[in-house]
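Next comes this protein:
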Amino acid sequence: MRVAIAVTLSSALGLAVFEARAGVVEGFRLWAGPDATRVVLDLSSPTTHKVYSLSGPDRIVIDLEHTAVDLPDGLPAGSGSVAGVRTGAQSGGDLRVVLDLNAAVKPKSFLLEPNDTYGHRLVVDLLPLGTEPAIKRAMRPVSDSGRAVRIAIDAGHGGDDPGATGPSGVREKDVVLQVARRLADLVHRQAGMAPVLIRDGDYFVSLRGRREAARDAQADLFVSIHADAFRNGRARGATVYMLSEKGATDEAAQWVADRENASDLLGGVSLSDKDQLLAKVLLDLSQSAAISASSTAGTRVIEQLGRVTRMRKTAVQQAPFLVLKSPDMPSILIELAYISNPNEERALNDAGQQQQFAQAINAGLLEYYRANAPSGSYLAANPPPIARPPIRHTIERGETLSEIAERYRISVATLRRSNELRGDTIRIGQILTIPSS
């Protein structure tokens, strides 16, 4: 009876095995981030695989059933925790991929379905051992002048996740990183504020990892920057989102369910020793305050963004974005423009417009904290001045950069920096942003 079953199963699986033999690794990429290294194998079709660790020396082995390799560009060079890559054919038509390591890691693998950019993929994340510390929300030290308000700035997507791609090939992950870096620079220059860049390079960070990094840095506000896309290339405008009530309810239920093993603190208070009812009450209070603050901060950002670009919605929208679900930290997500619109794609890729986006977001944050600075912070004792919108000057025939700078009583260097100019050349019809002094 056992033999008959084996024969039947073998016959039933015959076609699947035949199809699997056509499997090919068509691409091989490494993305090194500060917390993990991501290995991505592009596959012609899904395949059964095994991933395991070996020591002496440290290495990760990936076995793929009935798979060949066809890499016109060859294997990638080592990056992050991967010192080198090698492959070898195994008996039965299987493929073995060996990742030689700099140090021992913990592998985590999964298959991804095709999307608009890539086909089938096998993803292996290499996590350094012992890098999952408990995230504590300790009270921040207060100096004589007050602590800095910390802004977590999250550039969406990254690494193997390019986000949306515009008609001419501009990638969302690239332009939002540029805006995030510019915003971080402006926040850094503001007395009493400090930036925390969640992603400062082209690497992947999980959605939960983004918000956990912000909480680990004890951020006061989380700002996630994105670019929208739609099948209609005429769609345009910016939108600001906060967490929806349903998203908040779902996350609160998860926190209450996990409270027994929770290492996180909620606003400095542990949930692990609270009964279910008290934990829910604490979460509801914390989330209500965070959502209210998110709405106010988002409104101030909309007011300032509307001065430099078209707004698709003039009120803060609600959505259950996972990245916004921190229950004790105000969080907003900004869709700067539609990268699927050719005109807005060009704007997103323009250094001057990127700077204007960053300046507008920064001005909105300053307006928010002028009235809502945390107790004990530098901004509470030294409120930022009321933001004055920048002046937009259209170049006319015969004007020079030095004359314009003198007219508005600013330096030529400031004028160049505000408009990303590398010299003194300007053209008729060009619009310059004149920063408020």
Remarks:
- DSSP finds eleven helices and 19 strands in the chain.
- The longest strand covers residues 23-32.
